[in-house]
Amino acid sequence: MTNKVIINTDVKKGKINKNIYGHFAEHLGRCIYEGIWVGEESPIPNTKGIRNDVLEALKKINIPVLRWPGGCFADEYHWKDGIGPREDRKRMVNTHWGGVVENNHFGTHEFMLLCELLGTEPYICGNVGSGTVQEMSEWVEYMTFEGESPMANWRRENGKDEPWKLTYFGVGNENWGCGGNMRPEYYADLYRRYQTYVRNYGDNKIYKIAGGANVDDYNWTEVLMENAGHLMDGLSLHYYTIPGDFWTGKGSALNFPEDEWFITMKKAIHMDELISKHGNIMDKYDPDKRVGMIIDEWGTWFDVEPGTNPGFLYQQNTIRDAIVAALHFNIFHQHCDRVQMTNIAQTVNVLQAMILTEGEEMILTPTYHVFDMYKVHQDAELLSVDTQIGTYEYNGETLPQVSVTASKDGNGNIHVSFCNIDHVNGNSFELDLRGLSNAAKVSGAIIKADVMNAHNSFEAPETVKPVAFEDVEVNGSVLSVSIPPMSVVTLAITED
User: Fold this and answer.
1) How much of the chain exceeds pLDDT 70, in percent?
2) Predicted local confidence at residue 425, as pLDDT
3) Mean pLDDT over residues 132-137, rounded?
């Protein structure tokens, strides 16, 4: 049987929300301090304290939304400690991540500046675990109220006359765990209470996101939707791709055997089942899909790099991570009717990062390049795809070898992305563009590797990067495509 991918170019299945390509920057390890913020006195070139090289790299991948300040950190963060003259700000111990002392130099004003420089929307996560209703309410007032009030006046004193625009606000984080070890019934009641005071000031409308389930805790979703679904706009879900056991050893980011490669792919594909099952519960209470599923923490999580602070969650990033990212995007696209935002963990120097820094040096990871290759799908229309493309077999288990997604942008251009998860075998197939008379112009990019742990280092920063993809032949509306093992490809197709 000939391997075949059929794309129905005239069958649109929904819009791929650009926020599916969102990011997450927590006060964790070297993500904020050293990674994003170096301070205005730093010898590293910066714009008002934000390092320029990281800024320019992140601008290139069109980050639509950025989540901050946590994560677990959010539920011990008190926003008033991070405003005003920096020399007067309270120092605090980051009890969740490494026990380090931070000086609160990166706070609300600095984060909003970062978002402005990036052209991205802020997504702020409020403190339910150790904060008060008043504290959360006043934070929203401080940021968004344009009239006369103590908080608005305080903002003006701190240099910001006009309020910021703020759409996305999370009412707590992981309240089943580090955010308070709550039962779903208790958190549902707390959410109802806290969200009441997350007010819309003027024409600023808040999209309220409730803290959702950990992995397959379907009861959490059931309780939240039944008791508070009508008071939320979004419900979060957290799931990390971990090949080992979380507590006894998650596996190395670089030195891993073949079976961990396969397990990682299997665990990544599990995201599809989680979205489907949580989505079915949400459908029961919200058949019109008004409430968005917000997967605001996802990505690979391995053991930290040897010799680094275990609380800093610093890991290297290989071709394996790139393929996990592509797999996730393909899955998120398929669920674009329910999934309205996702935020990879995390942006710089933490977990599945886009960027790694060491002092003045910076490198881009394979995952960064996937975000760059896939940005063409942002806000595009998802197209119908059918595949007959073979399996990836390892030790008697099988997975679909090639994952495919396709979309059409506002200019009528078609983009098709593939990832081959097989670490040994390539694949050749026909790509049938139904509804297209002739593919006049086809171009593409690929990232690939010869070894499973191929990665970029400060000594060799371009080991894994996109190159032109040329293994494609065009015959009218049918393309013959060959892709190597361990690869991600994006094609751009215009009709004659």
Assistant:
1) 100
2) 96
3) 98
Task: Single out the catalytic residue among 34, 121, 141, 297.
Answer: 297
pLDDT in tens, 146-192: 999 999 999 999 999 999 999 999 999 999 999 999 999 999 999 99
Q: pLDDT at position 1, please?
A: 55
- Tens of pLDDT, residue by residue over 375-400, are 999 999 999 999 999 999 999 999 99
| Residues contacting 313, CB < 8 A, separation 6+ | 28, 29, 97, 301, 304, 350, 351
- Amino acid code (one letter) for 319: I
- Rounded to an integer, what distance in angstroms lies between the CA atom of residue 281 and that of residue 223? 10
C-alpha to C-alpha distance for 221 and 416, rounded to whole angstroms:
33
> Distance between CA 481 and CA 215 in Å, rounded?
36
Residue 174: active-site member: yes
pLDDT in tens, 182-224: 999 999 999 999 999 999 999 999 999 999 999 999 999 999 9
Catalytic, out of 26, 102, 110, 174: 174
Tokens representing residue 375 in the block: 């940005």
